[in-house]
Amino acid sequence: MKVVVKKPDAAFLEKQEVFSWPIWEKEVSVFDWTYDCIEECYFLEGRVTVEDKSTHETVTFGRGDFVTFPEGLSCTWTVHEPVRKHYRFRG
Q1: Fold classified for 4-90
Q2: Taking CA atoms, which of 41, 66, 67, 91 is between 20 and 30 Å from 7?
Q3: In the chain, where are the structural domains located?
């Protein structure tokens, strides 16, 4: 899985204009998702585990993480704690 997770500093977030991006919220749940383009997001709240359907590799992230999902990733999201995140799609 090529999911990139990092803890960015304020300068990075400002440069990306993260706080002007839309907000997405999701309750505790499990669902499948396939990315038809790159998604970048910054988690304000919550905790999630994403499992790549082809490799079964997992990654867990949450509040304060900046996450990049690659185009073509087919995965299962397990939302452990309600999510609130800024997001944008590219490509």
Answers
A1: Jelly Rolls (2.60.120)
A2: 91
A3: 4-90
